Amino acid sequence: MRRSRTTVAGAVATAALATLLAGPSAGTAGAVERERLVIDLATDTGAFHGGAAGSLYGVYGDGVPSRSLIEGMRLRTVSTKAQDGPQHPGADALEMLPPFVDSGGKDVYIYMTDIYRGFPYQWPGASGPERLADFKTKIKKQVQQVLTMGKYKDHVVYVPFNEPEGNMFGTGEWSYDKVSWLNDPQHYFAAWKEVYRLIKGLDPDARIAGPNTSVLYDQVKGFLQYAKANDVVPDVMTWHELSSPAAVRTNVAKYRQMEKDVGVGPLPVNVNEYGHNYHLSVPGQVVQWVSAIEESKIDADLAYWNIDGNLNDSAVEANKGNGQWWLFNAYGQMSGHTVEVTAPHPNQQYTLQGVATLDEDKKQSRALFGGKSGDADIVFDHIDPRLFGKTVRATVQEIPWTGQVGDSAQPLRLADQELTVGADGSVTLPMTGMNEMSAYQVILSPGGSGGKPDAPSVSWRETYEAENAAYTGKGYSRNGPEGTPSDVGKFATSGAYNVGGLRTGSDGVLSFDVEVPRDGTYDLSVFANSYNLYDLVKEQGPTNVFLRVDGKEPQELRLPLGYKWVVWGHTDTTVKLTAGKHRITLAAQDPDLGVTKGDAIIDKIDLALRDEKVTAPALYEAEYATLTGTEPRYTYGGASGPGAVPLPKGASATFWVHSPADGESTVSVDHLGGGRASLALNGEKLDLPKVGGAGKGTDTVRLFLSGGINKITVTGTAGEPVLDRLRVAPSKGTLVPTVYQAENGTLTGAAKVTDAYPFATNGKAVTDIGDGKANALTVDVVAARAGRHALTIRYSNAEQAPATHYNPDPIARHADLSVNGGPARRVLFPTTFHFNNFWDLTVPVTLKKGTNRLTFTAEELPDFNGDTYNQYDQRSPYAPVIDRLAVTPMAAK
């Protein structure tokens, strides 16, 4: 079969890149003119803003997504529904406001219209004035509720109208008078003035945003003129860009000219909906939007096409990030000021685009780019020798696409090299074999410290497209093209096509012919999807298929579920292969293991050599971490990378560390001496001896890491310890979990054991916890010592509310967890897409030595004022189905 044309900077590309980076750095000569992305470090384009990291309906509530995901993504703004609004389950403004702000967020934009059901909004009344009067009553209540939020209220921005030209002041059934304000603005303008003055009258310090149109219409200029004349100019200008990155640059410039013509502003801008299904989750697509938004120095929120609470297809489960999350993590760690980036096709979507910064204090430049397959040169011009010296250290990383619901490890390190700055003050990094779905990062630091370059973290790898594989048996379908630049409403898919046929009753076999370079163990990822509400899928949940290598060594794989068709995740396993050619098959029947139940589509398989580069501990260099109260230094000869970080008392370095699963990891803290430092995990200071010392060394600790993203912070406590890096690898044997089956606990009231979900451990789980505190699960657990422990809950949740629109509306169920009779803590559990699909969620708990009693209850949460309840089944009274609990100490040295 044909090798994929979209192989992502694989082993050949990695080797070529390393070789080229080691060669002449002032440019490369070749017969074919390569595209060039030029980064001019001498042209300052303004302070780094970070505004592209925004989200519409991306935060459901505290824990969905986790605070680590919010903070690590550097989420700056969120647009969300009015408190208790019936548009969607969750995402209530005043419930997600505190965790968002506490996780570093700046502003919550409240869509005040979302207090109504439906889209267009179904505001009641026989006439326009009656409808507006009802809305004003609800606006008053919303503002009064915000005023109870203490310091958090300062982070609220009110959005009185949303897309008024298609809703309240459009031409439809639910409009004010069936006349679009774009043709006759009198009623909309008057309503804007009334509502603006109502809000400011209740809260003079309130910030109000508008007009929040679906595009930047020419009529917005007239809106500004009216607003200025009546002293009701919005505090923030908002509109939507469901268009292209090129339109962002063009329309921001167009709007700025409107301001000048009218004589207002300049106002802060939030383009509070951007992007399409084809773009979201794809780092190589989203980086093109990021570059335009950052260049325009505005805020912007990713559009909400699917489910809420997953950061617009950035978050997986509660605490995992996909490739898009890691793109925003890299973007959020930029600092200093942006510099001019000249793309080979400026301001043209679906081409190589980028954004870059220079931080003189850190002596560091960072560049993010992507959107093109193949080769290109990344050129850094005007490198200041006073900052960088005569050589620079370049670390090159890839952030691959891992699907909408596919967990991603930290970015892949493709190369780490020292380069001599050319006589013209430039260096050129030749990128070979790029994938248009990936984003790439280059971190440039001073060279010459003598630090040994870090090896690439990836070796041989290859992608094989399902549409190019052979298929035998019945039921085959080749589906696509899926999302394309001309059909952005559809989801992105590797190679644009996928294959169906592996389903209940099928005899289909999908065969991939592969060739590998050497004997060894290989990581195999099957990118697949099943629609959770499809008839054949509803019976069992995850679709099972059967993997064989050359007809041998059968494995049963459970493929990922999604909220729609063509929503990709990946199921991962390992296979042992000898050098040469092999046939890897996915089948709907296996003579030893059984038959498929369900229905799945397959996008591709990724195959990667699991060698010492892959299995080595993940490296997190301190000079690349998020630093507070300190800066990197590049004069430490014993450092592993380009430099190290001194940590005077109170200064800290924060690392965003990936764990493939909930469980023990060995964290090695490499330091150069000078003092002591403490460790904190996900914001909690660990009860461990201080790390560091008088001289160079390594402190090894065992930490329980949650599956996905973990925030590890090292803070100076005595002297001035010099931190070199962290090395992190999964381990076992020190932090040993104790497992308790839920069905062995004490059940009260209606809570009962069920055998309806065969994928539960031992085929049994506990259901019907909740709908009142009497219906509870109690489990007694034993702790060998007092202190903080990880409580890992294996659960399922597939409750979904009826929707009035294109968004699926899954509900995050909750459990009220009490430890030893203490106050209950509410824990949110995101959807698992089927009650027979079980995930792990870990929460920290404090246990006493000996026996501890854990009690799980649930009851429906009332509306904000406590006097009403949601009438659309959007707040569940039930806890999830609970399969088992595991209790593990949080840390040990």
From TrEMBL:
Signal peptide range: 1-31
The residue ranges of the CBM6 domain are 462-608, 738-888
Keywords per UniProt: Signal
Q: Which CDD domains match?
A: CBM35_galactosidase-like (cd04081)
Per its UniProt record, what InterPro entries does this chain match?
CBM6 (IPR005084), Galactose-bd-like_sf (IPR008979), GH (IPR017853)
Q: Does the keyword Signal apply?
A: yes
Signal among keywords: yes
Q: Which domain of life is it from?
A: Bacteria
- How is this protein named in the record? CBM6 domain-containing protein
Q: Which organism is it from?
A: Streptomyces africanus
Lineage here is: Bacteria, Bacillati, Actinomycetota, Actinomycetes, Kitasatosporales
